[in-house]
Predict the structure.
Amino acid sequence: MGLRASNTPRPLIQLVPKLARFPAKSYIYQQGEPSSTAFVIRSGIACLESVNHRGERCIVHFLGPGALIGHEACLGEPRYFDARACTDIVLEPFGSQARSDPGRHAGIQSGSGMAVSHLLRDITNFRVELHRSSARRRVLLLLEQLRKAHPREATPLWLPSRQDIADTMDINHVAASRVVARLYREKVLLRAARNDEVGIDWHRVHRLLQAEP
């Protein structure tokens, strides 16, 4: 007896892109490397690093879940920055499902170009604002940037080390430590269970930003 064809639809088999995992403090890629893959951050925090005019390491941006990292791959250009995992991080390759669809791939390239433009604009605006500000205001501005890098409901938030704060703010380690210690005394920053996490009183942050020159 021959087998009869079944009218029952077969389930679609979907290939799930392999996730990339990096432990905290490891580098995801480095400036100038050829770029082959862009990623969406699924969990964790990453930072982009460059070198300032004095030849010193400088953190220029923080990115969190949902953000696209490694946009250069979609543009066929080398990496613009070093990318480092601040916490344990999980990345998903971006746009792999569109490689067999030229029209969709072109749309991804166009969208990535816009994303790169917005990222560079945000970095430039942030650096300009820092150079106009006192050390205290710089740390407050950093807290607001970190808030954007975390999921909206996240609490407490991951807080960079004093050295990373100094490297972001372009101030020395001692000045960064003094500002952070004072914000703890003023209850703007609140101790959390982990040393690398912090509670933040956002109402006080906003009031201080309005009052600080």
Remarks:
- The longest strand covers residues 57-63.
